[in-house]
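Q: Is it fine to ask for two folds in a single conversation?
A: Yes, each is treated on its own. Send the first.
Q: Here.
A: Result:
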Amino acid sequence: LASRLGVAAEDVHGVEITFDGDGRFVDFDHESPLAHQRGKATLIASLGLPRPLVAVGDGSTDLAIRTAGIADLFVAYTGFVRRTAVVAGADRTVDSFDALHALLLP
């Protein structure tokens, strides 16, 4: 999918998963930083991205990027699910991709 969208392989980060011979899920890489609560924050910090940095997400692992001081702004995306704790910790909240676009690229 990333390749079809023009995203370079080195810019894709995820948890490796394994399947059996019938294509059924077997397990995931339990050692991956992304398999842990603060893993996204750890990964983002390691990338050395330019500031200011905006993080967007709908879960506590996304919010951790802000609470760890790695992102300068956290936008809670509530278009799929609204989690009270995530919204409470967010700097801004949006409920659609159009609203996110308008916020970030006015």
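Q: Second one now.
A: Result:
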Amino acid sequence: MSAGMKIQPARAVGSGGKGRSRFIGVALTALAACLFSGNAFAWSLKEAAAPYKGTTISIVGLDRPSYKAAQKLTPEFEKETGINVQWTNFPYESTLKEETLNFVANSEQFDVILTDVVWPVNFAGAGWALPLKQFMDDPKLADPELDLKDFFPVWLASFTVDGKLYGLPFDSYAGLLFYNKAMFKEAGIENPPATWDELKAAAEKLTNKDKKVYGYALQSARGETQTADAFARFLWPWGGQFLDIPNKKILVNDAKSVAGMEFRQSLLDVMPSGIVSDDHSQVVEMLSQKQVAMITEWSAFYPTLSTGPVASDLGIAPEPKGPDGAYAAFGGFAYMISSQVAKEKQDAGWLFVQWLTSKEMAMPLIENGAVVARQSADKDPAAQAKFPNLKPMVETWETATVPDWRPQLQCYPRFSDIVSDWGSRIELGQTPVKQGLDSMAKDLNSYMDSSGCWDHGNTPQKYISMYK
């Protein structure tokens, strides 16, 4: 009802008092329905943000496509809310260190924190991040259209610690198989390999060492790439795991893990020499320049490949299955709210995170090169027709991966260093597979026991059922 609208006195229907009362009752009911309908008092971002107009919030980002897309769209949020957003981008390798220093020093430098899938237990365990329930339970701050069930369950589970959700997913990756369709056709290969054995057989056909063309390339650079890509990719599909946190047991040297690493070694003959020093950018470039026919890489590289020299011949499929089933690489990020900053900045930061990860923003982000974990956008037929990376991503997140792909440990950086060190030695042939894995297990056990790290881990797989 507008401010200037006047309510006219009700006229009686018929001659009796009952008619007059009935009419007034109907009129008041109609008026109440109008005034209190969802449309009359619908939640709006602009009204929710009004108390925080002029507030400046600091957001951590990376130099990757999803964050470039987010920063391009951020002025829309600023215009709608009057909240100023200041982005600070770091290289991935230094992000955890920079954020940890911020918290240890209580510098309040960052209001919205970026967390990798292996960091939630660091921030939540130390009390540096806030559970999101307090924002989602506040009717002034919570968008009724947030719709948590629209996120893929595997992603919400990844950022749940002790049963509490700490982050909303953003920049969400699946490991995919990228391949050159023209090279496949020339070699007489009709379909992308569905299993690792099929990939090896296809790679042997596609390899021509005289022309320096290879069937497959596996990014294996020492560091997190060796741990999360080159090592983990041949652990889970063979039935191996890094560790069993509840029972305090390292599993990297059991028979299944050994079988997976031995298979990895068998692929060296169909890969370029020096692969152990190659990172993501190198193998993506090799596929782009038609020096290799296949790579297993993060879905985030689709924008790069789809606009490069291989674009017209680019094929995309789920990662191959192993003897134990489909376990594709899993990685990505979420945004958390710092517990150390003023409530005004926490609330404003939440409004930004809620907006950025909303269903409404999913397609604009995808259109600008980002990857998101919103089912409504990723499963949209029109979107899948335009962006062929979406369909295999959806299949991966629904049926072919685990949130425990890398263990969530507060001591993860050193854990990863040990895996990377021995994983690189094995791949270089400096030590036999079983001997190297036994050494890796020994060093991991020693570190986990001496650091007390067993008591500071999280197993997100158990939380998937919470979000289905």
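Q: Anything structural to flag on that second result?
A: Two points. The two ends are 41 Å apart (CA to CA). Residues 153 and 467 are 5 Å apart (CA to CA).
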